[in-house]
Every structure is written in C-alpha cells, then in structure tokens.
Amino acid sequence: MTNPHRSHWRLNPDIDFLNHGSFGATPIVVLEDQRRWIERLERDPIEFLGPERSLLPKLDHVRDCIAQLVGADSEDLAFVRNATDGVNSVLRSFPFAAGDEVLITNHGYNACNNAARYAAEQSGASVSVAELPFPIRSSSQVIDAIDHSMTSKTRLLLIDHVTSPTGLVLPVKELVELAHRRGVRVMIDGAHAPGMVPVDLRDLDADYYTANHHKWLCGPKTSGFLYVRRELQSTVHPTTISHGANTPELGRTPFLAQFNWIGTYDPTPILAMPTAIEFLSGLVEGGLSQLMRNNHTLVVAGRELLLDALNCSVPAPVEMLGSLASVPLPAERFGDKAAVNAFQRQLYREHAIEVPVFLLGGTLPCLRISAQAYNSIDQYQRLADALRTLTCQVER
C-alpha cells in the first residue's frame, strides 16, 4: 500500500518503522531548514551564537510559536535539550527536606524515575511508587492508585501525560486537581504529548510541565521545553549553571536568562521548530488536530490486528490511547529479558520490523507500536503475521 506522506521522511524504505515513539523521525523539510540554520551559524558564529547579538530574538520567536501551540504564556517556557533534562531541572531544584516523599508511578519513564531517586537521595527524602495496573480498565484506576499512594509526606507528584512503556494517556487534569487539594505540587513529564494529544497548559494548571519537540512534533533531536508556574520560576534552575545566573539581560526574565544560555550549544534544533509545526499543520486537511486523530485511528486499528494475532483481550480502553499502544505478549514464552531482546532482534533481522519489545515492571512482556503519518495499516498486518509465527518459536 502506497502512503502519500512517506516521501516526506528519509526513513529506510526496507524497514517497517513502527517506533516513532522512541526518538521520533524528522521530515526532510525540517532537516533542510535546520541545515540552513547551521550554515548561517558557521558563516558568522559570534554574531549568530552570541546571546547579546542576535540569538535571543530568534529563541523568543520560537518560544512564542511553542507557547501558542501548548496554551501557555511564552515567558513561562524555557528551552531544554529533552524532557529528561526538564525533569532533572525541576527535581534537582526542588526544596526537598529529610522525610519528604516524591511520588512516581511504575509506568514512569525509567530515566525520570532515576532522576527522582537521585534527587531524593541527595536531600534525605524518599521515593514512593504508585502501582498503575496494566492491563487497565479505566482511567479511574489511575486516579485511585495515586490517591491511595499519597501521604502527608508527599511533596511532589511526578506523572506522565502519556506513559512511555504502555502508551496510556493519563487523566492529568484530574490528577493535578487531586494533588493540589492535598497540597502536593505536580511535575508532568509530557515527553510524548505535544503533537499526539491536545495540550493546554493554562487549563491543566500543573506546577511544572516538560515535553520533547523531537517526538510527535517531528523536530530535530535535542529540543524540548520546560514550563514552570510563574511564582515558582525563581526556584527552578537548569542542570548546567552558566552566565545567565548573574546576567539577567540574557532573557526576558531571570528564569529565561538562566535557561537561554547553558554554555556553548547548538540552537538549530530549536530554531527549526516553526518549520516542523508548519509542516505538520499542513500535512492533512484539518491541520494538526486532524493528524492527531488520524494517528489515533491508525494505532487503534493496528492494535486490533495484533490482539487478534495474539488472541489477547483489549489491555486498555481506546479513550486512553493517543498514537501509541502496547500489547502483552505470552508470558510463558517471554519470561526474561534475554527472551524479549531476542524476539525484538528477530522481528528486525528476519521481518524488517522496528518495534520495542520489553518487560513491563521486569515481569510482563509487552510490544509497543506507534502510528505517524508515514505509517500504513499494512505494516501492522505484517507485524501481526510475524507475531503469529514467532510467538510459537522464540529464539533463545
């Protein structure tokens, strides 16, 4: 089946790439725009990179574009290299005291959960884990699990907008309201959200929110943003302290000044973001909102093929999916890490299919698919056909 959008990406035509969720994939037009920015940078590095010269207005223009997309005031958005960087900035700045708790979930991104543990260790705080089920019946189970896990010592809740391993869109607005009623601040890891699901930070009202540009917004790698509630900005600092700490003219506010310059770095992934947003907004009739709906429809259809091939029940309601979906694999055939790694290699080497296969919580084998504009339903059918064959004969 020919996909008319496939030609906009430089993906290997011999591979069924069903793993947009890991690192994204950048369209050709965005790469070309980034290349133009790189050439301008190298033609006059001092003029281009010097914050006191011409860099800051360029960053502010992109900041305005991102702010409009995610429903925020631009002065509340700082740029970070990725969502993990944003999470670390908040956690390592947070005023934890001995005896405090930070609450994470078992579906959280491993890197960010590690950051929570590190920050807690440095201050004498502790980490507690809310156990979210998978398979899952409804979002109310998420709310109940987190509600029951909060204690009088909980100071910060770190949750995903869209969980990385299971692809679940969590009820983040309800969780923010729940936490705030109990005097708990909320940090949302929105790594997958912009470009996958609607994001309105004003309505969401979280204390902190970070996201990647390189995933579902299809920007170049090492580009993301960090939102911090206005009254908390003086307490949040980048993971690299540089000139902005005592040079307020490096940004519209002291908060932005610190994040605008963290030492010499390549700003071209950030500067290419307006082109990425424009590209996605014009890819299908109906704009980015319609593209997100299309991707959701495709991943749901793809999941149905996989569930049929595995003779598996629906592991999560459709309304909790964006454009990621995970399905459990037979536990009796994939009981350890070596088995799931071998299975992933088989899918790639023998069937030319790129998907993540992993153990959720170290025990439940799962396979995750993504849906982006360049994907087609026949790719998921090929994966389903491969699953029928390979789940009976696992390479050891």
Automatic annotation (TrEMBL):
GO MF term list: isopenicillin-N epimerase activity
Top class in the EC scheme: isomerase
InterPro entries: Aminotrans_V_dom, PyrdxlP-dep_Trfase, PyrdxlP-dep_Trfase_major, PyrdxlP-dep_Trfase_small
Aminotransferase class V domain mapped to chain residues: 59-327
Pfam families registered for this protein in UniProt: Aminotran_5
Taxonomic superkingdom: Bacteria
E.C. numbers: 5.1.1.17
Keywords: Isomerase, Pyridoxal phosphate
Protein's name according to its UniProt entry: Isopenicillin N epimerase
Organism this protein belongs to: Stieleria maiorica
Lineage, highest ranks first: Bacteria, Pseudomonadati, Planctomycetota, Planctomycetia, Pirellulales
